[in-house]
Design goal:
Elements: H1 6-22, H2 27-36, H3 43-49, H4 58-74, H5 81-88, H6 97-106
Helix pairs in contact: 3-4
């Protein structure tokens, strides 16, 4: 078995995350990754393996920022990434309308009187 470069491994892990999301990953491979690389599929891993798009591609850039925001919220943003995001997208870490909806959905219901 040949040694893989960091870039090749990054691409491979990204492919496995994409397969996991699509529901096409081999269950045995997913179990092996879970056992051998804890966190291979968490928000921090996704932020590390998702390539940065061209700044002109606003849709792809928004998706990339969201991946990084999820890692930030989870406390697993790659080192130095927050400062970089601050420089290219001020306010990137602010909650979105979707976050506010999730927070509203998670609030306990008011007790009702019988």
């Amino acid at each position: 078995m040949s040694e893989k470069t960091e870039e090749e491994l990054t691409v491979w892990i990204k492919e496995q995350i994409d397969a996991y999301d699509a529901g096409t990953i081999d269950p045995d491979l997913a179990a092996h990754l879970d056992a051998e690389i804890p966190g291979w599929n968490d928000a921090g891993a996704r932020a590390r393996v998702t390539p940065e798009p061209a700044i002109e591609d606003s849709e792809a850039m928004a998706a990339w920022i969201e991946v990084n925001r999820a890692a930030h919220v989870a406390g697993s943003l790659p080192e130095g990434r927050a400062a970089y995001l601050d420089s290219i997208a001020p306010g990137w870490s602010e909650p979105t309308a979707a976050d506010e909806q999730v927070a509203t959905d998670e609030e306990p219901a008011e007790p009702t009187e019988a």
